[in-house]
Amino acid sequence: MRIVVTGKTGQVVQALRAAGETAGAELVCIGRPEIDLSQPLTLEAPIRALRPDVIVSVAAYTAVDKAEDEAQLAQVVNGDAPGALARIAAERNIPILHLSTDYVFPGDKAGVYVETDATGPLNVYGRTKLSGEQQVARATANHVILRTSWVYAPYGRNFVTTMLGLADTLDEVRVVADQQGCPTYAPEIANALLVVARRVVDDGSPELRGVFHLTGQGETSWASFAEAIFAGSVARGGKAVTVHPIASADYPAAARRPTNSRMSGEKLSKIYDLRLNPWHLSLDDCLTRLIGLPRG
Ligand SMILES: NC(=O)c1ccc[n+]([C@@H]2O[C@H](COP(=O)([O-])OP(=O)(O)OC[C@H]3O[C@@H](n4cnc5c(N)ncnc54)[C@H](OP(=O)(O)O)[C@@H]3O)[C@@H](O)[C@H]2O)c1
């Protein structure tokens, strides 16, 4: 099975490379300069030349705040390019997996979001990712859209590496406490993508297609997530850092974020028998890879 993945340097792509080696999958990761998602019309020739059995659409315009000023570019990369990739998949009669985001939701639901809940993004990034979902679904029924959230890994720029970086220079940090979500570990996203890819290549059943939520189990706020990161660092001999919980209103950002973007992984668990680890176990693995095993 040859899996063609968009992106070469992102967190999930790096995790996919590592997981693909272990799983023995033939993974071809293609990104800039070979393909540029801001030029959707140029994607067909290089992707077709790779003769994929399945396309995994991972690369995206992920700078949530900057997207507010670059809406046109974000729309092409996150909306139109996945649509073009899905048309290529449809022409080849192969499935496409597409990663999307919790930010398609408005965040005003009391409980966890399920796949059938109404979307209503609050920011440009979320709107463009929703457009990507819609364009993929329009192009081919042979798609799996996987919405994930709060992605982190032992590499790349993410909340965990940012917090640990801040600990080098600060003894206290102010972190938003009124946004709830599900941290999701890129190596586990990668493992799940490989399982889903294998299944949809081998099995054409309609119930394997559609929208699924792919998140770490459990939920937290950014402030509690930061506290867990610093506690894990201290357990490994790192410096103690005090977290001061603040309101989103006290942390001005260009893009509005949903207050609640918790998503249920029940559908993925039921249909694919796939569930990711509780987020604090995955965080522990991430910290061990970054810093080492806890002392004592
Ligand atoms: N990070 C999160 O918290 C989060 C949350 C929910 C959903 N997601 C979704 O999960 C997926 C993976 O996220 P991630 O965190 O792994 O992303 P990431 O680390 O920010 O990497 C983004 C990747 O997209 C590539 N890219 C950006 N613009 C491109 C273009 N015009 N042409 C070709 N490649 C381009 C980048 O390539 P360069 O190295 O060349 O810039 C980079 O490899 C994305 O679809 C994202 O929307 C992420």
What features would you describe in this structure?
The protein is an alpha/beta fold. It has a domain at 2-157 and 183-217 and 261-276: Rossmann fold. The protein has nine helices and twelve strands. It has helices at 11-23, 44-49, 71-92, 124-139, 159-166, 186-202, 222-235, 266-272, 279-290; strands at 2-6, 26-30, 54-57, 96-101, 143-148, 151-152, 172-176, 180-181, 184-185, 210-213, 220-221, 242-246. The chain has a six-stranded parallel beta sheet with strand order 2-1-3-4-5-10, with helices on both faces. Strands 6-9 form a two-stranded parallel ribbon. Strands 7-12 form a two-stranded parallel sheet. The N and C termini lie far apart (44 Å). The mean pLDDT is 96. The chain binds NADP nicotinamide-adenine-dinucleotide phosphate. Residues 7-13, 31-32, 35-38, 58-62, 77, 99, 101-102, 129, 148-151, 156 line the site of NADP nicotinamide-adenine-dinucleotide phosphate.
